[in-house]
Amino acid sequence: MNKNSLLKIANLCCNFFKMIIAISIIAITLFFFHFQLDRSSYKEWNIEKPGNDSTVRFERESTVGKKPVDFDKLKITNWKIGSLYYSYFKFTAILILIYLSLNQFGKVLKSVKELETFHQTNVHAFRRIGYYCLFIAGLSLFSYWEFGDYTKSSVSVSMNVLFTALLAFILAEVFKEGNNLMEENQLTI
Amino acid sequence: MAIIINLDRILEERNMKSNELAEIIGITTANLSILKTGKAKAIRFSTLEAICKALDCQPGDILEYKA
Questions:
Q1: Cα–Cα distance for residue pair A52/A70, rounded to 1 Å
Q2: pLDDT surpassing 70 at residue B1
Q3: Residue A32 has pLDDT above 60, yes or no
Q4: Which domain holds residue A139?
Q5: Which end of chain A is more exposed for a tag (fewer CB within 10 A), N or C?
Q6: Searching chain B, which residue's CA lies closest to the CA of residue A183?
Q7: Which of B7, B21, B41, B51 best tests the A interface by mutation, with the highest count of A CBs <10 A?
Q8: A 129-188 near B (Cβ less than 8 A)
Q9: Spatial CA neighbour of A108 closest among A24, A188, A174
Q10: A-chain residues within 8 Å CB-CB of B47?
Q11: From the DSSP assignment, how many helices (H) and strands (E) are in chain B?
Q12: Scanning every residue of chain B, which has its alpha carbon at the shortest distance from the alpha carbon of A182?
């Protein structure tokens, strides 16, 4: 497989994920408004406890009253409005930031195809990806779920996103050095 | 930049134009302009040799160091 085929596949994947994210944002927004207008249509929807990913997590669960909460019996219709708004804006912002990161990555791929790899714009693109990842990590820091009497709040640090941010900043420095070398080469008479 | 390019002065002394020199030494006028304006980051020995041959001068006549 030659270089151009790999770049084409990467570009296609990038565009595909951008499309998926755009559809997800629309779907979440539609759900957000429909859920508030007609909660009863979601009465069969149960809540699943999220699995642990590569995060460092501190969480606190609490219930009102003495009866312990049966997680399987929690319904999405009990979702409190404050928690719903918080979750909607948080996830939408995260999806928008992922979309922007993919957009920047797509620009880098395009410049590589046009043989302008070590250009200053790519240095800025990788820095932006790094900042977007830091914002994503910041937004993912605090979670707040409230369903009826059940409340769960947690502080978690997503190590994957932080490593991605670090990698993006390192790549920005690598491309900066590459750009310096290219300029030096171009300005050698 | 501490290295001064005295190419303009030498060209004037030899009654030669930039484009003529560029043609003789085989570089573009744009690159010669980069060299004359001091924007160049490096100069190849082959280019320097060609300039010295064309202008019948020494490298020290073209390049000057100012502290």
A1: 19
A2: no
A3: yes
A4: 3-39+62-186
A5: N
A6: B41
A7: B41
A8: 183-184, 187-188
A9: A174
A10: 189
A11: 5, 2
A12: B41
